[in-house]
Amino acid sequence: LGGSLLLTVVIALACFSFLSGGIQNYRGLLDGPLQESQLVDQANLEFKSQVQEWKNVLLRGKDQAAQDKYWGQFEEQERKVQDILRKLVGEAGEDIGLKNQVEKLRSEHQSLSAAYRKGKAAFIAAGADPAAGDKAVQGIDRATSDQMGALVTQLHQRSVEQASSISASAERTVLLGTFVLLGASVVIALLSLWLVNRNLITPIKSLIEHIGRLSQ
Known about the structure:
mainly alpha, 5 helices
């Protein structure tokens, strides 16, 4: 009976061990694609704020003080986007494909800096004419924004696939563990009955027969 209980405990511990591995996989999912997706979302949000600050420069930049203010905020947003993308490169780890995508995105975002500065120069040269500044940079932010959106979609899809795989693995572990425990319980019960019958019931019957013959 002690051996039977020990076997049951071992099986239960094995199931818990497999489930613990599933929890570690979920933690890897949180620290991997989900974290990366969050960073791309954040970078995309900061980039949109950067574009908005550029519009503020065009619309409110006739006054030099306002122009300096909004241009400074534009450069601050620019630095934030670069910092987030740099962090994302570090988070990519061994994922060479993702790392290359982010590096390309960083490079394209950096190339926008020169374009926006040319747009600012055109804006100032035209006597703070918003149309001139807007024309100089028209449509240049669309490709970067589209790449960020595509990257977010890709990471979200990867997260969903990994979560589904981990969930399916955990369900299989629970199901298999349940069947193994039930099967082991049946085998243990049958073995226990056989041992009790062989080592206890049969000798008692034999003893009763001997006592009966002795009494005669």
